[in-house]
Design a protein that fits this description.
Blueprint (H helix, E strand, L loop, with lengths): L1 H5 L5 E3 L8 H10 L3 E4 L5 H14 L4 E6 L8 H17 L18 H7 L6 E5 L5 H9 L3 E6 L2 H9 L4 E5 L5 E2 L14 H11 L4 E4 L5 H10 L3 E4 L13 H10 L4 E4 L7 E4 L2 H6 L12 H14 L22 H8 L4
Parallel strand pairs: 1-9, 2-3, 3-4, 4-5, 5-6, 6-8, 8-9
Antiparallel strand pairs: 7-11, 10-11
Helix pairs in contact: 2-3, 2-13, 3-5, 4-12
This protein binds flavin mononucleotide.
Flavin mononucleotide binds next to strand 7 and strand 9.
């Protein structure tokens, strides 16, 4: 039971969604009895403290803090040049001098300084994307009584997480919006649907399995329960909720073309993530050779995104969205939580 594990009423985790939400969404889901999540991977230390103070003012219910734990590799000048060459026509179109680019909003893996910041807040849950951080960090977080969970996209990853300290595993199927949480293998041909992955994980593991990807209706939730999932993690279904901070261009893309027009792409960060196809994905291909490794692809593309968005275009914006989407425009996240859990 993840209800007793996380001390929540409803076995629903609002998926952390960096870039489209802050504490408003998390607090609304917490107050409704689910587990609200704050995505922390793109927050500076000062922003993290500010958001944690706000969150704990808004709710005294348990919450989840989400971090990335990727290994940052070097970004060589040769890789940068290759990437900029691919984007040259776009830089020309927006009159951007690639030499002037500084690193844009990026994603940092968790480190000891961040652990020290969150320690006094004693989150009920800390979730990770891309594996787990080093053992000492996992052990320290667990010493507060905090539960540690992480995403698996294959049975092998789920087994690895269970053997390396996870208290529960988020089984993320192919349908999921945003970044794939894969970390043992980058081979996308290994990826399975949520249904297939949940079934396999439930069959082989004894710790709680939380289903994620393509869950948008009460029947989807009921189906995951029938497969043996202990709960669900839901992202895209909250993208148009009252409390989400999804940009107007992103909202427009979701309303006009989300169904069946998503694809996995590495273009925006260097790692595969699912979003609505836009101009840059259609013109360069979703996974062309030469995109630098995560998260280095983002700085150049963010410069293009900023210019295009000023002109009212989402041609270079990461329009993260899962394969299944039911628009619930302006509905509160609390109401969406209750709707989804109606048949649990
Ligand atoms: C806009 C968006 C941003 C996301 N950002 C994160 C993130 O920061 N951290 C994370 O662990 N997962 C992130 N995800 C993935 C979710 O945790 C989850 O796997 C996914 O939303 C589930 O599929 P669904 O979107 O079909 O509900 C994101 C998903 C979306 C749609």
């Amino acid at each position: 039971m993840i209800q007793s594990l996380f001390n929540i009423d409803l076995p629903l985790i609002q998926a952390p969604m960096a870039g489209v939400q802050n504490v408003e969404l998390a607090a609304s889901v917490c107050e409704a009895g689910g587990l609200g999540s704050l995505p922390c991977a793109m927050l500076s230390p000062a922003q993290l403290v500010e958001q944690l103070d706000l969150l704990t003012q808004k709710t005294d219910k348990p919450f989840n803090l989400n971090f990335f734990c990727h290994t940052v590799t070097d970004y060589t000048s040769q890789q940068k040049q290759q990437w900029h060459n691919m984007l040259t026509p776009y830089f020309a179109e927006y009159e951007i001098d690639p030499q002037s680019l500084t690193a844009g909003a990026s994603r940092q893996p968790i480190n000891q300084a961040v652990v020290d910041i969150i320690a006094p807040y004693k989150p009920a849950v800390v979730s990770f994307h891309f594996g787990l951080p080093k053992h000492a960090i996992v052990a320290q977080i667990k010493s507060w009584g905090t539960k540690v969970i992480s995403t698996a996209t294959t049975l092998d990853e789920a087994i690895w997480l269970s053997e390396n300290g996870a208290d529960a595993v988020i089984a993320q199927g192919l349908e999921a919006g945003g970044h794939r949480g894969h970390f043992l293998s980058m081979d996308l041909s290994l990826q399975q649907t949520t249904e297939q992955l949940v079934k396999r994980c439930v069959e082989h593991l004894s710790l709680p399995i939380i289903a994620a990807g393509g869950i948008a209706t009460p029947d989807d939730v009921k189906h995951m329960k029938a497969l043996g999932a202990s709960g669900v993690q839901v992202g895209s279904a909250y993208l148009l909720s009252k409390e989400a901070k999804t940009s107007a261009l992103h909202q427009q893309a979701i309303l006009e073309q989300a169904q069946d027009s998503t694809a996995l792409t590495t273009l925006f960060s260097g790692r595969a993530a699912r979003g609505i196809q836009n101009r840059v994905m259609l013109e360069l291909g979703t996974m062309p050779e030469g995109v630098p490794s995560f998260p280095h692809a983002s700085s150049a593309i963010t410069a293009l995104r900023t210019c295009a968005e000023k002109a009212g275009q989402s041609d270079f914006s990461p329009l993260w969205c899962g394969q299944k989407y039911i628009p619930r425009v302006g509905v509160s996240a609390a109401d969406i939580t209750h709707i989804l859990m109606k048949k649990w």
